[in-house]
Amino acid sequence: MSATKLQWFYTDSGHPGVDNYDTVILIHGMNWHEESFHPMYPFAAPAGLRFVSFNRRGYPGTTPYSAEEQALLTSSDTASHLLFHRQQGLAVARIVLEILADPKLALPESGKVGVLGWSTGNWFVLALMSALDHPELLPAERDTLSKRITHAILGEPPSAHMGAHPPANGYNPAAEPVPDLLEIARWASGYFDHPDLASRDSSRLEFRKYLSDPSPAVDRLTAEEIARMSLNAGPIDGPFLLPEWREANELATREALRKVKDGLWPRVKDISIIWGDKTFWLIPPGLWALEDYAKELGGPPLDIKLLKGGNHFMILDHAKETTAFVKEFISA
């Protein structure tokens, strides 16, 4: 991977109009690429923030995975999966460095820099947190990252990507023999009433029935907006959801938390998490797994904020509130 420079597509919310400001680099989820963050862009400058969002590998404008990487992604053994995680952590480190050095952005060196993942994007934030000691990083690159990155923010971390054990009665329309892409989007962007979140019992979550009011986020988007923001990225991100990936995802998540706890990133003092209590069922077990891992490891601290009434697509439906939470994290 290191032999060929990767091409990355990214956009930003614009200069906030002040000399000193903080930057948050945004990593998108499955199917919904960097443009899904654009509803948050108008709220960045008033909060004294600048958002920069990039398309991950294989999404528009960014280099796809190589044949070797795709083979690791689709393999069935944990060692290959962990190697893939390590490689992608290095790749994310390199795009973060590219953004920090981009003269067109001219980001202030005095400002804080957070990296925020949404949904599947959290997997890549954690891969970055494991990558600072990667042997292919140059000392100058490692020094820049350790001095500039101040916050790791997980937005709506899915249970599969955190390596949580799935409940026996779980449901995912993406696993149907002939997946209905629109129904998957409705399910993922819908609002759910979960009867007993305090129990931390994943078998008691509402798996299927999203509310009609509020309606799923995608039902309030035009066909043009959906086409502009999304694509079918099953071959790119689908393997992470398979049972064969669970062990690697748990090991990788634990390793990322351990490295933050042990001070590999001197300016990252905790892991920030935002989630909504009306989200689909895949998210609460992901949060609980992170809490359990951090407790077992003795850290790092988790700064968890709940968006009351928030769905999984909070970056669309609750863009202002999500930005406000990000501001709180960065200001801490």
TrEMBL record:
Record's keyword terms, sorted = Hydrolase
SUPFAM superfamilies attached to this UniProt entry:
alpha/beta-Hydrolases
One Pfam family, short name: Abhydrolase_6
| Record flagged with keyword S-adenosyl-L-methionine | no
Molecular-function GO terms, alphabetical: hydrolase activity
Q: Spell out the protein name for this chain.
A: Alpha/beta-hydrolase
Keyword presence, Cell membrane: no
- Recorded source organism is Exidia glandulosa HHB12029
The record places domain AB hydrolase-1 at 24-322
Entry's InterPro entries? AB_hydrolase_1, AB_hydrolase_fold
